[in-house]
Amino acid sequence: MAISKLNFNSLNVAPTAGKAVSFDSGADDLEATLSGGSMVFIKKLTASSSGTLSFVNGASSVVLDSTYKEYVFVLKDIHPATDGAQLGFNVSIDAGSNYNIAKTSTFFRAFHNEDDSLSFSYVTGRDLAQGTGFQPLTEETGNDNDQTLVGTLNLFDPSNATFVKHFISTTQGYASANYSTNGYIAGYANTTSAVDAVQFKMSSGNIDAGTITLYGIT
Fold first, then answer.
1. Which CATH number is 70's domain given?
2. pTM for this model (two decimals)
3. How confident is the model at residue 33 (pLDDT cuts 50, 70, 90)?
4. How far apart are the C-alpha atoms of 63 and 55, rounded to whole Å?
């Protein structure tokens, strides 16, 4: 059996941040290759008694196109002005002129009350069956000073012109009835047109405070 030896002094590779070293097609050469995905900051919106928070591709430095195959919205300390309101989202294919794309989704949740009662169930009142309205992301969030919600929304390949647009969301909130609630939502926007805008709003009243940050995934 032949043993191959490498002359390490003859191997050439230029180090590159965020990449790994691997062999290329040359006899004595290495190359820097992608070592994995990363989150690229795009835009952060801060609510202040805001009726809506909107991310529109090409507006105010927002990128929501074929640059990335996955986008993540990070929800942080969202506080409703109205007690018991639910945060929801909708998508647009006309740069935010209309947020009315049909969506089909599932919604299940777990909650644990401060009095130690608990539940885990599917919630038919929060899913959509070709509904064009806003998709709820949460159960009722309280508006006491210490009550907020956090979570993420993943939107996949929004510029794809062949397939529908899938989304997945996980949220955690301090509900108006003083319990911890976890929402698990998934579905698709039933359009093969490019989704180029996403809007968030409460089911009632304004988004009193909180931030939503958009990232692209490489």
1. 2.60.120
2. 0.84
3. low
4. 8
